[in-house]
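We give its fold:
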Amino acid sequence: MAEGRERATVAGRAVHGEAAEGALMKAVTWHGKRDVRVEEVPDPSIKEPTDAIVRITSTAICGSDLHLYEVLGPFMGEGDVLGHEPMGIVEEVGAEVAHIKPGDRVVIPFNIACGRCHMCDRELYAQCETTQVRDHGMGAALFGYTKLYGEVPGGQAEYLRVPQAHFGPIKVPQGPPDERFLYLSDVLPTAWQAVQWADVPDGGTVAVFGLGPIGQMCARIARHLGYRVIGVEPVPERIAMAERHGVRVLDPGRVDAAAETIREMTGGRGADSVIDAVGMEAHGSPGAKLAQTVTGLLPDRAAAPLMSRAGIDRLAALHQAIEAVRRGGTISVIGVYGGMADPLPMLRMFDKGVTLRMGQAHVKRWVDDLMPLVTDEADPLGTEDLATHRLPLEQAPYGYEIFQKKQDGAVKVVLRP
């Protein structure tokens, strides 16, 4: 028996109580390359005793959502509900959910983890063995992110069914605006992990390639922890945002070679650590861009197996990272890659003795580190200076377009259902 909403409907849609048969809500759905729509879809309901239903108050478009918009279509289904950066108010909980209750304000981590399996015991929540998508050989299920990750309906919607809600949701206090906490769903723990994985020595230098939302927070967190930060980014609005937070930024369009400049700034050695916050759609990789474009023109039944076996990424940022890091240094890869046949300069990496760390963020592993910062009235990470666009859910297609095309100064788009 679920606890929470009384059964009631407005205009034929459940707003309190278990979802009525035929009740509908609005959600952002995928329909093809660069084709997302806001449509009515069935209201979610409790299916398992570990489920919860959350009414979404804010939900963001992630840079990795743009990979679905552009590159990863072969792994999507018509009408899939997008989004994995939501927060809201608990409406209903299943019988085995005890740590949250109706009325609580919560943030939902993008990965779905049980909190009690072998991997979760080791705080490797992105590899949860309860939700691993074994049919595709992938890690923990994710909200709103392709067949590869479980095809779980996402959070760019009015309501969200949250599996494994006995563990996943992060309870946050009432009062401060949503944006103070929203990024605990993905951006902040992803950036925090990227900096931790980078293993920057005390007083060391870290270079951050790509100053989208994740890169912005990587740079701010690294500065907060006392490291010297060098950003690499060509987009003027992103450069200006980073500079507002004290980051020295190199524009690759204005310097001959970012890696060479970084070496010059670090006594000829290179940065102690480098974070690749760009990923599979990096600029400056024309061959891989052509391959991605050709693959995108194939029917999904042909494109998906090809990408699974032989897909390649645009590796310009990663190659630059390998050149920019000092010998014996560490590269932390947090930008999403999807290729299975990527050529890497193994001789160069081996000779330099580079350590490479990567992977999806283990969101709840880092919450205790981040919560004091997001609840601090001084807002030391500048969470309220990240979103450039705040749009109603109905304008999601416009939000995707300007974010993907880097138009109208878009750095981060937040949707309000």
Residues 5-18, 282-298, 306-310 have pLDDT under 50 and may be disordered.
